[in-house]
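Now for my pick.
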Amino acid sequence: MAKVTNILLAGVGGQGILLASEVLSEVLMLAGYDVKKNEIHGMSQRGGSVSSHVRFGEKVYSPIIPEGEADMLFGFELLETYRNLPFLKKGGQVIVNRLQLMPPSVATGMERYPENLEQLIADQVSDSQVVDGLELAIEAGNARTVNIALLGALANKLDIEQNLWIQAMEKMVPAKFLSQNLKAFELGRQAAN
């Protein structure tokens, strides 16, 4: 059976996960892969969980990543990344943004945000990397480019030519924000080396 690679993007509504998954899917199609994508929005309008399943290979039949089969977990927020670890296969990789967004249950004092999530993730996944996406986005000149800075970090894990990433961003990112996004992408690549 032809190998299918599974990437799960996980975070909170408003973080640009859907744009990131669109750019990622476009890049993979430009590279010649069959790509299937699915989004799960939850209460994304109110800061709830959002995930996007991206699967690619020679031929992909389903857009859903079965639990325990993600090759890579690409997390935009620490708690959401931790919650989605069961999707990761043994030997999988994690790239996670160093960001904590308090869910409503924490904001109202009903629950506490877990401590030491970076360490908890590292304890469960030997191939994990933490990236400060907000710091990179600010350095790029626009705090809203966090998702693209994180994509830059992810790009280092995939064997895809840089020009295809640029082509996809030129197609998907509004022209007036393109230069800042390209800078954020490059900063993300450098941070994840």
Notes: The mean pLDDT is 92. The helical segments are 17-30, 78-83, 104-107, 117-124, 133-140, 146-155, 162-172, 178-191. The beta strands are 4-12, 34-40, 49-57, 70-75, 88-97, 127-131. Residues 17-30 form the longest helix (14 residues).
